[in-house]
Design brief:
By secondary structure, the chain is of the alpha/beta class. The chain has 2 domains: 118 residues, Sandwich (Immunoglobulin-like), CATH 2.60.40; 373 residues, Glycosidases (TIM Barrel), CATH 3.20.20. It has 10 helices and 27 strands. Strands 2-5-8-9-10-11-12-13 form an 8-stranded parallel sheet. Helix 9 runs parallel beside helix 10. It is globular, with a radius of gyration of 23 Å. The chain starts with a strand and ends with a strand. The structure holds alpha-L-arabinofuranose (AHR). The site of alpha-L-arabinofuranose has 10 residues, from loops.
């Protein structure tokens, strides 16, 4: 199948925030405990209990931010339980995720140390569902207030003199569900009330993110947008929140109880997953359209702070731990999402994959027995796409409709691509979702000459292929020679179910 497209390399689109490549770590299954944090007596390399091989692998991705402590867990989390001497921290039950005991050994100081090791900005989700305004307000004071104050003194007594810089602040999570089962109207009021008392101390300026819609619930977004700018009190800087979120998961199965296996799927299921993944375009377009009505100047940010595949857990694992493997199919789900994110970079300010280690569409899987670390196919997409972070998005125009195939009642466009420019280099990302037919692209590069092409490909013999501790590199990027440029035309051959990145000097 031949595809013809045009990229004007000198026509600037919006900046692609590096925060579109953000992450998420919840107290859920083995994400925090066993994933990021192994405790001080662990047999794997660690710094004060934080797993260093995980940190090093994530640093290769330039991970820009990390959302914590949930998810649903955030609305049950009481931050004061997670500070001070570890053996005095109270134990709680993690009622959302497996009903296991949470010993609070990974708390505020441990999370901030993790962010410092990663070089990532913290994104803290505060507790609206079961917390209080005072509790949230004091957490902000504890983290960010310099000088003398009750919470700053408490922080210092716990060993940290300097305040931490914290910008991203979530006002609860999924308030329509696990975050309190609220109506949009009620939550909008709560978000403004909580947001009002989350203060800016010194130079620290919070960027407050209201808990947004589930998938296509555009009415939720509309309600939050109606409330976003009407505080009417001139000496209060904040209107309550600067951004609102949305969550969208790629689900394949017909019901929530039958999500399908992460590794054992047929071609039909593969295509259904791709249809669900591609729907992110419609979802973001819908929320962006509502936001444009109320905020044409785009001062309110849209944050997709949970996205990714959600399959049945691996056989024999705790159903509440959401541990799933990750295949070529997941890699293509990720690459399609990134193409869409780049197109919405004018409104979308952040996105966080769920979740970084050992939960749902993870970057990294750790073996609970041997401690081995595996980089997933999704990890490699994040790595291959690193160059888009903080780059200028470039518009891609296609001359004829892109190839597609019918999947049930839906039409799946099987070629996806996006491009950006940064530091004198062009980066083009291309995916072929078709499991049967290769695709050949001719891209007319206008407005600049591209040289010194470098290309990588991520694919494998079957969409079900994945990496394990025994075979960690089944799906791994390899140098690719199926690209060429001549007379301003970039030619790319895309094998079946493959992801390719092409970069060159401009
Ligand atoms: O990522 C797993 C869960 O999915 C999160 O805790 C919740 O916010 C969402 O429903």
């Amino acid at each position: 199948m031949n595809v013809e497209a045009v990229i004007n390399v000198d026509l600037d689109g919006p900046r692609i925030s590096r925060h579109l490549y953000g992450h998420f770590a919840e107290h859920l299954g083995r994400c925090v405990y066993g994933g990021f944090y192994v405790g001080e007596d662990a047999g794997v390399r660690h710094a004060d209990g934080i797993r260093l091989d995980v940190v090093e692998a994530l640093r290769e991705l330039n991970i820009p931010n990390l959302r914590w402590p949930g998810g649903c867990f955030a609305d049950e989390y009481h931050w004061r339980d997670g500070i001070g001497p570890k053996d005095e921290r109270p134990v709680m039950v993690n009622t959302h995720w497996g009903g296991v005991e949470e010993n609070n050994h990974f708390g505020t100081h441990e999370f901030m140390a993790l962010c410092e090791l990663l070089g990532a900005e913290p994104y803290i989700s505060g507790n609206v569902g079961s917390g209080t305004v005072r509790e949230m307000s004091e957490w902000v004071e504890y983290l960010t207030r310099d000088g003398d104050s009750p919470m700053a003194r408490l922080r210092k007594a716990n060993g940290r003199d300097e305040p931490w810089p914290v910008r991203f602040w979530g006002l609860g999570n999924e308030a329509w569900g696990c975050g309190g089962n609220m109506t949009a109207e009620h939550y909008a009021q709560e978000a403004r009330r909580y947001g009002t008392y989350c203060r800016d101390y010194g130079d620290n300026k919070l960027y407050k993110i209201a808990a947004g819609a589930n998938s296509a619930d555009y009415a939720w977004t509309e309600t939050l947008m109606k409330q976003v700018g009407h505080l009417g009190c001139r000496h209060v800087r904040s209107t309550g929140y600067e951004a609102l979120s949305v969550h969208y998961y790629t689900l394949t199965g017909p019901t929530w109880e039958e999500k399908g296996s992460a590794t054992d799927f047929d071609t039909d299921e593969y295509y259904r997953t791709m249809v669900a993944a591609a729907r992110i375009e419609e979802i973001l377009a819908g929320h962006a359209a509502v936001m444009d009505c109320y905020d044409p100047g785009r001062s309110v940010g849209l944050v997709l702070d949970e996205w990714g595949t959600w399959f049945d857990v691996e056989p024999g694992t705790n159903p509440g731990f959401l541990y799933q493997q990750n295949t070529v199919r997941d890699a293509l789900v990720a690459s399609v999402h990134f193409d869409v994110f780049h197109r919405f970079a004018g409104r979308l300010v952040m996105a966080n994959i769920a979740q970084t280690v050992n939960v749902l569409q993870a970057m990294l899987l750790t073996d609970p027995q041997t401690g081995a670390l595996v980089r997933t196919p999704t990890y490699h997409v994040f790595r291959m796409n690193r160059g888009h972070q903080d780059a200028t998005a470039l518009r891609v125009d296609v001359r004829a409709p892109l190839p597609s195939r019918r999947v049930g009642d839906a039409t799946l466009t099987t070629v996806s691509l996006s491009a950006s420019r940064k530091d004198g280099r062009l980066l083009v990302s291309l995916s072929n979702l078709d499991a049967v037919s290769a695709a050949d692209l001719e891209i007319d590069l206008r407005g600049g000459v591209v040289g010194g092409l470098e290309a990588q490909i991520l694919t494998s013999g079957a969409p079900t292929d994945h990496n394990t501790p025994e075979s960690p590199s089944v799906v791994t990027p390899r140098p690719y020679d199926g690209v060429s440029v001549a007379g301003g035309t970039l030619r790319v051959h895309l094998p079946v179910h493959s992801f390719v990145t092409v970069s060159g000097a401009l």
